[in-house]
Structures are given as structure tokens and as C-alpha cells.
Amino acid sequence: MSGDWSSKPIALFGRNSLSGTFATFKDTVLMHGEFKDAVKQQPGSEAVVEMVAKDKNAIGYSGIGFLTEGVRAVSLAAPQNGNCYKPSAEFAYSGDYPLARYLRVYLNKKPDQPLDPLIADFIRFVLSRDGQQLTIKAGFYPVPNATRLQSLKSLGISGDAS
């Protein structure tokens, strides 16, 4: 290799092992392998982004909702076809962007029992237009409408969460 950047060390930043982002990256990119010792684990995605923004020789991984000025999300090649995809909602929903994942809400609910009304109201809000607008405002992609409606139906929450 040659050029100005060829001799520059690359600083590596990532999440700590308690993070779902850490687990997704480890499973998807490292194929269940281990991180290099040189990866500087951070307690939160904001910290990863901040460290990368401060060092022009740095790379890291974080959720799309933590994107700020001074960093950029990169297009990635999908292993199944080698095509490169932008980190966009379109390619996240289609499954083409190789690091896309849903953020999930887990409920402790007995299968034969209805949801507690307070929990149902919370889920209804999360999946409502207002809840999804907050998701967008936070920098994340909203739940696709078909997924949103299926989630409400599968939980026995009546009506459309408008």
C-alpha cells in the first residue's frame, strides 16, 4: 500500500459486550468470532460516534439513530450477492443492508392471557403514528406498516394504533 493514509493506524471503536449492537456485529460481521484486543469498547453508541468523530483515522459501529455531523454511515456489500447497499430505510427493510436489525420490545405475557391494559396502551402508543414519529425524530427508521399491523394483531390489541 502507498499514499498518505497507508502508514496511519486505524483506531477501532465499538460497543461493550452488554449491547445488542455488539452481539449483532459479532454474529453478523465476525461470524461469532472474537473482536481484536485493539477495539476500544464504549459504554454507549453515542460514545462510539463521538470517538470516531474526534479521530480522522477511526472507524466504529453504532445504530443509525446515533449518526451525527462528523461521521458518516457507510454502504456495505451484502454477502449473498456482493452488491453494495446504502444504509437507508429501503435497504434495511428489504434485508439487503447486511447490518440492519429491528429493535425489539419483549413482553412477559402468558400465551393464554390477554395483555395487561397498561402494557397494551404502551404498545399501542409505540406503534402509533405519534410513537413512530418519535422513532423518526430519534434518527431511527419507523416500523413498516404491515409489521406494525401484524404486531398489534398478534398481541390481540384491537384497532389501528393511529
Q: What does the secondary structure layout of this molecule look like, with pairings?
A:
Blueprint: E1 11-15, H1 20-28, E2 40-42, H2 45-54, E3 58-60, E4 76-77, E5 84-85, H3 89-94, H4 117-126, H5 129-137, H6 145-154
Parallel strand pairs: 1-2, 1-3
Antiparallel strand pairs: 4-5
Strand order across the biggest sheet?
2-1-3
Q: Indicate the CATH topology of the largest domain.
A: D-Maltodextrin-Binding Protein, domain 2
CATH architecture of the largest domain: 3-Layer(aba) Sandwich
- State the major sheet: 3 strands, parallel
The helix-strand sequence is EHEHEEEHHHH
Question: What is the number of beta strands?
Answer: 5
Defining traits:
162 residues, alpha/beta, D-Maltodextrin-Binding Protein, domain 2, three-stranded parallel β-sheet, 6 helices
Tell me what you see in this structure.
The chain is α/β, with parallel strands linked by helices and 162 residues long. A three-stranded parallel β-sheet has the order 2-1-3, covered by helices on one side. The protein is elongated. The protein is built from six helices and five strands, in the order E-H-E-H-E-E-E-H-H-H-H. The longest helix has 10 residues, at 45-54. It has helices spanning 20-28, 45-54, 89-94, 117-126, 129-137, 145-154; strands at residues 11-15, 40-42, 58-60, 76-77, 84-85. The mean pLDDT is 92. The protein folds into two domains: 11-94, D-Maltodextrin-Binding Protein, domain 2, CATH 3.40.190; 103-162, D-Maltodextrin-Binding Protein, domain 2 (3-Layer(aba) Sandwich), CATH 3.40.190.10. It starts with 10 loop residues before the first strand and ends in an 8-residue tail after the last helix.
